[in-house]
Amino acid sequence: MRVQFDRYSLDTARRELRAGSALISVQPQVFDVLVYLIENRDRVISKDDLIASVWNGRTVSESTLTSRINSARRAIGDDGEHQRLIRTVARKGIRFVGTVQEIPPSAGVAPQLEAPGQPALRLAAHDRSCIAVLRFASLSKDAEQEYFAIGITQDIVTALSRIRQFFVVAGNSTERSSADVRQIASSLGVRYVVEGSVRKAGDCIRISVQLIDGGSGKHIWAERFDRELGDIFAIQDEITQSIVGQIEPELGRAEYERVRVTPPESLGAWELFHRGMTFIARRTKDGNAEARRLLTRSLELDPGFASAHAAIAWSDAEDLFFRFADPDPQDILTRARRAVTLDDKDPLAHLAMAWALTFARQPELAIEEARRATEINPSFAHAHTILGRILVHSGRCSEGMQHVKLALCLSPFDPSARQYLNVLAVGNLYLGNDAKAVELGRHVLQTFDTWAGRIVITAALGHLGDLAGAEESRVEMENRWPGFSIDQVRRNYFVFHEPYLERLLDGLRKAGVLEK
Predict the structure, then answer these.
(1) Among 3, 6, 378, 381, which is least packed by CB within 10 angstroms?
(2) Residue among 438, 482, 459, 516 at smallest CA distance from 323
(3) CA 265/CA 260 separation, integer angstroms
């Protein structure tokens, strides 16, 4: 649906709201509220109608509902006093009363949004980063390969759309008509462009993919995927998942480089969120503190921003897990629940819930939340890792390690990939593969030196009988984390499968770790 009202235009396919040519940054649920009101403008909409449509019938507080309606009003220049476009009907509900004109689909590469009384306007750059996926080129005349290239393109558009921090231009807008990527990016109003090609050679197929800065035309990332042909749909799914898993962190890095020289007071809620997530990725006490400062500012601009609430819960959870600080686990759970209530389609919100439920010692519920995050975004490598971690500590080592290995395949160059190896080190320790646990653990320490990683190495060295190495590791632990003891591990290292916990503690005892 594409419509105009007042000086605004709304496009549901692109999920865009504009005032003239300027894009208005709108939270997903606020956008959904606005769309539902416009689609049902011939009647009064009750609160129950909104809850059933936007929140799928889940319990929603009065304050959340009011916040979304007020945000929808603000987005289109309305307010509760004037009610030019969204009118409250006492004791009945609300109704969209603006004059709406439907816009027929337009042809060409770049759909034009026409403001009343103005010529067609080129799409403007987005506050929230927008990506165009160009149709992948088929490098042969094989009709089956052409279908494969089209399918890969469509699947990547769908998969990237699950990353809530970015807008993705719909596939029918991305037919390539120019060799200049910068011209395409400008006409579509996007910041990044994904392009690629498909080549078949015998029983093999090669997919080449590039992520390009639409402003400069420079390549941000490029990769090649070679696969043997078998089940064409299985290959398509596998390659799509791998491509999106690697593009997501590259987009994050590109966004950070773009905004890092911009004063925070000049950034919008989405940009502040993205900047905050970059600091969380550092896995340091100071990084988490700076992230929360930025995220708090983001919420001042948009109090109902689910992802920012989830990120604060996430940073607090990281502080607790890595012993950077001692936030109240109940506060983490409350914040994560708020994020899920605000937007239950946000994978980060469900992942924050998984962490929070881990600290509440509710592993089965934590597993459900982590699974939900991977279902919403199957290419979310960190979600697979957290799911794997909880499964491993719950006695399901093999299943958990498979999720971590998938995360490493999805995002091998992500700075967090070293952390993923730590979960594999833990799994090998629990399964009795102590030498492998030490090997993996030492890889982790090269860039990710925390007490959680050193515990695994110390315990594995204890089991191996390497007394000198175990003592060195234990002394380092005691120097860096005063009070390190068996009791502290019981309290702060969340292992839910008793045999695994006992093997961990037994290895630490062999290394000379004191009980208290």
Answers:
(1) 6
(2) 482
(3) 12
Strands 16-19 and 22-24: antiparallel
Buried b (16+ CB within 10 A) or exposed e, 330-343: eebbebbbbbbbbb
Query: What is the C-alpha separation between 190 and 229, in angstroms, rounded?
Result: 34
Q: Are residues 468 and 387 in the same domain?
A: yes
pLDDT per position as a tens digit, 7-60: 899 988 778 888 876 778 777 788 889 999 999 999 999 988 888 888 877 777
Gap between the Cα atoms of 101 and 4, Å rounded:
5
Q: In whole angstroms, what is the distance from residue 329 CA to residue 324 CA? A: 14
Do the domain assignments include residue 65?
yes
Please state the domain count of the chain.
Answer: 3
How far apart CA 197 and CA 153 sit, in angstroms, is 10
DSSP string, 183-201: HHHHHHT-SEEEEEEEEEE
What pTM does this model have?
A: 0.60
CA 488 to centroid of chain Cα atoms: 32
Q: CATH number, domain at 471?
A: 1.25.40.10
Residue 78 sits in a domain whose CATH number is 1.10.10.10
Cα 516 versus chain centre, distance: 40
**How far apart, in whole angstroms, are the C-alpha atoms of residue 31 and residue 34?**
5
